[in-house]
């Protein structure tokens, strides 16, 4: 009987271990008892070279700055019921702080947080908070505007393609900011949008880029997690603007610049505040002046005139004297949505559900 009991126990342990490994969980640092445990939930694989990669590089930066942190990551977690299960599992494992790094984790994060009031949850790009839930994002639209200047000065066909993930306010805001930048230097240019309804699908994203190039675009921008659209541009002898990380290494002849994230210092700040018990729930939306967003270095194909235009606009944005969505701004039909001299409120920017003049495409199609 004892032998049967121990055999059954061993089988149960093995099943639990296999279940954990099946959801992509990785303990990224050793786990002595004195470690402060922090977990990260990722929507894509660490090797996506884009969104998830940028967060994981920040996690490594965190470890380098706070050595007594133990981190756990779970990759490729679908947005929905699976996310709630994974977040719950991480809470049960004793993590004191859990970062959930995709918009679709918003409701699962809130649901789990209700059950674990002593754990701090930080959700990236969402808008729902609680006593133990904060949100964080950066004003990436500011860097997108600057990249639009580079694209607008580079295009010869006045047709610029944009490979977009999902028609949520975050993505719509980025398309609009990019288009505002393009048309600030080239009022005749148009930005054509194709939706993939994916965050991470290398083949589909690259094919969307090819479709835009075949339709006459000679610059390709993107809100996707892979370099596929940039690689499509390079193969066609055209240009592009990367996203999340510097994509020039993956398409060096095409990438004008990339709109990039720098999450590391922010992660250090949050971990220190939770450890010191000074953390408070907030909705952080960091500007370019905070350093959480930036432009990657320009490629050799970008001329000095364009660099100067971008630099001048960047200085004004960082100063706070002006921001991207300052009127007059018209929608696709030509109707004035933001009067001259008026600046859009954060609430309006966070709920963008219309395209600015110069965008070709419809929401969700």
TrEMBL record:
Domain of life: Bacteria
Example of a GO cellular component annotation carried by this entry: plasma membrane
Assigned keywords, A-Z: Lipoprotein, Signal
Signal peptide: 1-28
Domain ABC transporter substrate-binding protein PnrA-like: 37-318
Name under which the protein is recorded: Basic membrane lipoprotein
High-level lineage: Bacteria, Bacillati, Bacillota, Negativicutes, Acetonemataceae
